[in-house]
Amino acid sequence: MTKFNHTVLSAKKSVLATALLAIFSLPTVAAPDNSTDTYTTKSGAQVTPSLSIDAKYDDNIYNQTNNETSSAVLIVAPAVNFTIDNGINTLSFDVGLNSGTYAENSDDNYVDGNLGVAVHIETGKSHRFDFTTSIASISEQRGSGLSEGAFDPNADLIRYSDLLLTATYEYGMRSTQARIAFTTEAGTTDYSNNNVFATADSNVSNNLLGTTFYYNTNAFTEVSLTLNGDYIRYDTASLKDSDVYNALLGLKWQSSSVITLDGKLGFEFKQFENTAVDDFDGLTWDIGAKWQPLRYTSFYLSTTQASQDPDSADGSYLVERDVDLSWVHAWSSKVDTSLAVTYQQDEYENEANNRLDEYLKYTAAVDYSLTQWLDASLYAEMINNDSNQQNISYDKFVAGLNLTFTL
Questions:
Q1: 68 lies in which domain range?
Q2: Which residues pair with 232 in a beta bridge?
Q3: The pTM is what?
Q4: Phi, psi of 41 (to 5 degrees)
Q5: What is the CA radius of gyration of the chain?
Q6: How many separate domains does the chain show?
Q7: How far, in Å, CA of 407 to CA of 402, rounded?
Q8: Rounded to whole angstroms, what are the CA distances from 297 to 137, 257, 323, 335, 380?
Q9: What is the pLDDT of residues 282-305, one digit of tens each?
Q10: Domain of 254: which CATH number?
């Protein structure tokens, strides 16, 4: 993958700025927008700041089978969004920080950050372009990810950065029955040096190419056909290098406000570069449904299945199956409650011990809109992770209060 060229950026900066101002120019406006959580500047940019404060208790912060360690945790996440929108074209910037403080052990404290840019351009009724760029610095909680089942009190937090670039071109008027979109994506994950868990083996890049054809039947139904290929390459773990191909039929259906269905079902083929590693071929899906029998009550059901590359060294890939069921009830315009259950099964392939994990999480929450600029959420989670491998199984209880401030 070509490295980012800062010299080229500097040379083109003024040209790019001029072009963006021409595309996204807005009339001069200078007034706060009291109807939304945004502030509009004199230049026409909409600024949306937010602050999330999450105070919680976690009775097993390292996901241990025995000798669990509990801690109070404070997570503070400020963020701001800048958007220029002239009604057709949009330019958006997102900047955020995420700081975690653990009362039990300061070695678990972290500060992460993320930056994102999104551009939407329409050059006529039939031509639409979308470009996104995001970069994030992320810390893994000890006992999760690469250190799952292998907590080491002397090891530092594992840190890595994610970079993702996407571009999509869509042809076809939105009012017509048929449209087609072409997508490309490039991403990298780079771990900081950590000799204890050999993170260099998890440095990976991927390049995706895909196309989707949409057809609207004009009977509350849209069908689609998606074809894509994702080419995954590791810096050192060449046994996991693979090409993943998908063919998916999609369906969006909404006959009324009561029932909504949105899903894709198809076939996946994961072919490894090393012929000694067994390939995967099988069904893949991503299906979601909403049932709203009453105006103030909604039920949601979603299920997915796909191959994934494991965080750990167990196996060359795993087949992940998820089922999520939730209920949301609005008691008033300010108060709602939610109950949810999540089941996930991870079946590891090309792994000597036939590892199988089953994850079950129950969640309950009460959300209260205190003011236009302050929302509160009181929540509790019960987690059971069961595995046929030693030190992977654990139980966890988490309870907390989240406050979200907006302008």
A1: 15-406
A2: 206, 242
A3: 0.86
A4: -80, 175
A5: 23
A6: 1
A7: 17
A8: 38, 12, 20, 12, 21
A9: 999 999 999 999 999 999 999 999
A10: 2.40.160
